[in-house]
Amino acid sequence: MLSQQALKENAARAALDYVLPRIDPDAVLGVGTGSTVDLFIDALAAHKHRFRAAVSSSGRSADRLRGYGIEVLDLNEIESFPWYVDGADEVDRALRLTKGGGGALTREKIVASVAKRFLCIVDESKCVERLGKFPLPVEVIPMATAAVARRLRGLGGVPRERRGFLTDNGCGILDVSNLDIVDPVALETTINNIPGVVACGLFAIAGADLALVATQSGMRELAPGRS
Ligand code: 5RP
Question: Which of these, 4, 63, 58, 10, lies nearest to 34 by C-alpha position?
Fold first, then answer.
């Protein structure tokens, strides 16, 4: 039986095998955040001559990339790039995601939105029939924390402040459990529209284009419309 760590390593390697043949040496690669992505970055290091530079969704990943001598560009310098590779906390069959366990959700959403395609890499424990078991991270402007928490309670959620944590944007995170996510697109829109919310960790309006899922019996590809 493979450990979750071994599955994450398999997902990271599979992402490398998938993406490298699909980019040229001038390409910029979008890199997300989290323990699976850390493994992806580690594997990427030996292939840094096969792409020009990276763009990253967090200081944590940027530091790791630079530690390997990989150039990290500011997103403002780039119009578009072919692939964004990132993990997730939950993935459903339609490739809608919950993200933000590592607190980088807003930058992840921004970087993903500039990429042509989003490749999600997960181990099989992240695959769900319905999003919502993982408490939904919501990034909030600090002065609005209480106001946003009240609105989230009004939606049936139970928000809990992530104590002692500030995002790369200097904001806080509310982790919201107990949400009944019947319609992820509608809920994402509703939460995004609460004044004081920077972004919510639902990636449903724009989910992933492809997921590589590491399972006990090997890698599985998930694409919208395929099961
Ligand atoms: C960070 C994220 C991560 O992609 C998500 O938390 C999964 O992390 P891991 O690969 O460590 O399980 O959204 O904000």
Answer: 58
137 lines ligand 1 (CB under 6 A): no
Cα(174)–Cα(96) distance, integer angstroms: 20
Compute CA distances 111 → 63, 80, 115, 176, whole Å.
17, 9, 7, 24
Tell me if 172 CB under 6 Å of ligand 1: no
Instruction: Give the integer Cα–Cα distance in Å for 220 and 184.
Output: 24
Overall pTM surpassing 0.90 (yes/no): yes
Where do the H-state alpha helices sit in 4-94? 4-19, 35-44, 59-67
Ligand 1 atom at minimal distance to the Cα of residue 104: 14
Question: Which two tokens mark 47?
Answer: 């292939």
Query: Would the CB of 86 count as within 6 Å of ligand 1?
Result: yes
pLDDT digits (tens, 9 = 90+) for 125-164: 999 999 999 999 999 999 999 999 999 999 999 999 999 9
